[in-house]
Amino acid sequence: MLMDLDSLKWDEQILQIMGIPRQILPQIVPSSDTRTWGTTLEDGPLNAKIPVCGALGDQQAALVGQTCFNMGEAKNTYGTGCFLLLNTGTTPVTSQHGLITTVAYKMDNQKPVYCLEGSIAIAGALVQWLRDNLGLISSAPEIESLAKTVEDNGGAYFVPAFSGLFAPYWRSDARGVIVGLTRYVNKGHIARAVLEANAYQTRDIVDAMDKDSGVKLSKLKVDGGMVYNNLLMQFQADTLNVPVIRPKVTETTALGAAYAAGLAVGFWSGLEDLRQNWAEDKIWHPAMTSNVREKYYLEWKKAVDRTFNWVE
Q1: Which residue of 14, 41, 76, 301 is most buried, as measured by CB atoms within 10 A?
Q2: pLDDT for residue 215 is more than 90
Q3: In whole angstroms, what is the distance from residue 177 CA to residue 172 CA?
Q4: Cα(20)–Cα(77) distance, integer angstroms
């Protein structure tokens, strides 16, 4: 937050405003650095002197682990929250639609690559809430079976603005709502609405990214704990109208960090090696008609609107 995105150096103006002395800050280095920054201790947990030469932030590491090296490629991590990153190339794109502009990675002396990032506060946490607060399920995987007992959400939408809404809304005054309830709605519909909320929140971010970047998403690579929920992944493909792809290795954050270090020491010769190492496990293709898709999404937007201005 203190770095200038263009120069990749500490921003002197921000440091002055924040009252932070420049000399206490560490050196900014590439994500993958052939110079290395030291080694692990020979008598440490690894019992070897291993060069330390790769460093990536959590979501940037997942982007690298998913080998999203081309402009327009994107990944979404489904964890407690959701984090969607879109590669925008070697020029930072300033968001006008509620997203964050950040550095994706910089490999040694190559140009930095930037991305747009959208964060969702409540994703898998909503499934946990259904389990722990309402007791509708006893374990998280059960939500898929419960949601499959119904054909659709029965008109019910769940917007999990428990502590406000993150990207692209940034509304701290919002609070969670379940709307569209009738006597027809049962716990299966609620379970389905919980899963669908993740897909709709992701579409909110993708639409903002389309507007900011001018790049239409052609596919979405996914990782994180929720990607084994087939119902959610299919609905995500339907909602975005693009293929959703799960890799064989879904622990892409750790993989991306390993990739960065491996490039630095020559274990891999370049990004093409990493692309060859990535492997698809499963792909979901959109199967929903456009009129149904847009009807559902319009109702979701109405539900989001009901969350606003709750906190005075």
Answers
A1: 76
A2: no
A3: 14
A4: 33
